[in-house]
Amino acid sequence: MAVATKYKIPLIRAGVARASAETVLLRGVDGTPLADVDMAPPLAATLTVAELRRRPLGEAPSPETFQLMGELFGKATLNGLTPAEYCELQTRSAGVPISVARRSVEDMAATCANAPVRVAAERPAGAVAGVEPGEIRAVWMRRGDTLSVIAPSNNPGTHTQWVHALAYGYQLLVRPGTRDPFTPSRLIAAALSAGMEPSRLSLLPGGHATADALVKAADLSLVFGGDTAIRRYADNPGLVPRGPGRSKVLHTGPITDEALDVICDSVAYDGGLRCTNASAVFTEGDPMELGQAIARRLGTLVAAPPQTSEAQLPVMPIEQARAMREHLASRLAGAVEVTAALYRDGGVADLGDGSAALRPAVLVCDRADHPGRGIELPFPCVWVLPWSRRDPITPLRDTLALSVVSDDEQLALSALREPSIRKVVFGGLPTHAAGPTSPHDGYLSGDLMEVRAYGVAKGSGGPRLR
Amino acid sequence: MSDDFAALFEAPVDATPDLDELVVATMTWHFSPSTGSPFWVGRAATLGFDPLSDVKTYDDLSRLFADVTTDWSTIPAHTLVPRGCTGRPGRFGVYESGGTTGAPKRIVDATSRRRNIEYQSMFLDEQGFPTGGQQAGWLHIGPTGPHIMAKNIGNLSELRGFLAYFVDLDPRWVKRCIASGREDESKRYIDHILDQVKDVLLSQDIRAISTTPRILENVVARPDVYEPLREKVRGIIWGGTSIDPETLNLLENEAFPEARLAGAYGNTMMGMAPQRTRREGDPSPCVFRPFYPYTLVDVVDPVDLTTRVPVDTRGVVKITALTRELFMPPTVERDMVTLRASVDGDLGAEVSDVRPNETSKETIIEGVY
């Protein structure tokens, strides 16, 4: 497919594209130059937030705007890129298999269109849209006006989260992940083309210092990152953290094909790059037997350049892929890698162009408190650990998504009572399964919105809230 | 109080003495027992060549001193004062380098650096930088204490008719906070500095400031400091650390549109290289011109430190100081720069895009983000 080998991603301040004197050449995982990205230094972030504060903020965008935004994202040529061209660039840069990018394009259209429905579902039942004279009622208000998003590059779908913030009426400032400025750039282009108020949309590519300045300046900040990145902002009162998911599967009963379907789908869907991909499986059975069965299945996933349709695994520059495997080797702590025997040339699949795919890794542990239960890596990498009913919940803590593969729904319900487990699915659903209004890590509105009281005396009444 | 060397060492700052003549004068002054410093006169015996007879040109100097290593952090500073300076005007002081990466280096200076500041002020005149009319205030927000910066700013503000005010910033403490992961502490320190800046701004007639780009960025993020600064200040000198071209663009055109900004690249060892006034077609928004020939800047290959890089190429700086009060043989500093062609004929190197020479190391982050 023909794509431009060089493309420019401008930074966007309050809806207006601006060039920067500082640009970075973004290369594909194989080293091919893909795009020049205009960089926003920290001062650009500070000045942009200051500029937003000087502007009056109107009402949240209409449902029709989100509908149109989704359609445009899915079908239109935006920033000079057709959807297919966007997918190829995103894929080559982030190393995510192109099938993921293609599916994301469709998901994103649906997510945008669904945003108003979702927001309506999140709104507390007691909060009203307007207060009549003579009433004192609950109203649902934003906790601030500006939201910075320190975005990752792992999966285009991650960006759906901040679409909801637009629906609450926030002004967004997105610091894209280094390897995927394409997705937020396209989403913002779709929103602007759909007629959204320009001040609601800023794209500020930059490094740590830019992220720091954004988090400092914005009212609230949605920060995606590893534990270190999240700790970096821990004392910021407006922090909404999105750390590693550490999603898990709990398996009881026999090792059936159906159970393996759910487990392997949970681990490797979308290349294993989602925070809802399982990184640990707890089993009541024999971890070695289950681990070997998982390995036999995952071992067949195809290593190929990300822009090819057969690709099923994440790809990165080869030295980075090797470093990733070395890191894994340093974290084994006695765990046995049962996938190793399946690969003639090791866990790093050299694609011959300077890049490499990371083959799945299945690591069998002999105890439930093995540190592997908390280690999440950006490829299909799963730790299989023993589990027993004597202490059923402790090992399952700190989990974004838990799939209970069992015939005992009581187990799922006990897990649901543990607050650090943010989603439980039962009876054969993979960890990444989600409903149109089910929360991802609580509702984002739980952090960004709150109810306040508003009362109007009889015979009075100013402008109505919407 | 002139002597045979005055035409070279104390030439008018807009004149350019012949480099090789200055080299010979420097060797004669610093290595003759009657005028040289105890340090260099003592060192002459072990050099393996005779600086008085063997060094006739800058190339001789570069070649012969290439293997002479000098640990500026341990030399007793009083032994650096040339004997010939006794009785000459000016009082010597000891000045230390940043000291953020290891033990600080020390130099001595009485009046030589003031000449460098006169040279800087000449460029500021050309660039329309304000003068103070003996009334207005100049606020320096940066290193004072052992650093030569305070003396430089004292001289610069005096030359331009300002009263000098200071808010001290200890770079070593900031570096230590960051190195030990106490970023919250460095943030509190910056706020402590900005509180003091605000106090001076609100109570005094401040029209010019000198500070680092980082402080300027932090000022913009503090509306209570930014508003009065933007309103009052018409001249800003930035230096001490690097700045990327986009931040410079934003500072000049958006954050402080009514102030004249001028960069200054320098450190304790090399002196001050002011920003050269912009010309059409400049290769970079900010080109620095060292005080040639008293400060010589060679830009060399970071791996092979004896090879000079071609014009428009990046390399590390190698500094030589040739003044009456200090001789510093070619010394490699930590900065990476781009060498630029001198636009006004043979006036030594011009440099741009200064960045610290740091190697970055990628670490594995656990988690899909």
Alpha-carbon Rg of chain A, integer: 23 Å
Helix content percent band of chain B:
25-40%
* CATH-derived architecture of the domain at 111-275 in chain B: 3-Layer(aba) Sandwich
How far is the first residue's CA from the last residue's CA of chain B? 69 Å
- Beta-sheet strand percentage of chain A? 15-25%
CATH class wording of the largest domain in chain A: Alpha Beta
Strand order of the largest sheet of chain A: 15-18-19-13-12-20-21
- The general outline of chain A is globular
Radius of gyration of chain B: 21 Å
Question: First CA to last CA of chain A: what distance?
Answer: 47 Å
* Helix-strand category of chain A: alpha/beta
Roughly what fraction of the amino acids of chain B lie in strands? 15-25%
Report the average pLDDT across residues of chain A.
Answer: 95
**Mind telling me which CATH architecture of the largest domain in chain A this is?**
3-Layer(aba) Sandwich
CATH topology of the domain at 111-275 in chain B: Rossmann fold
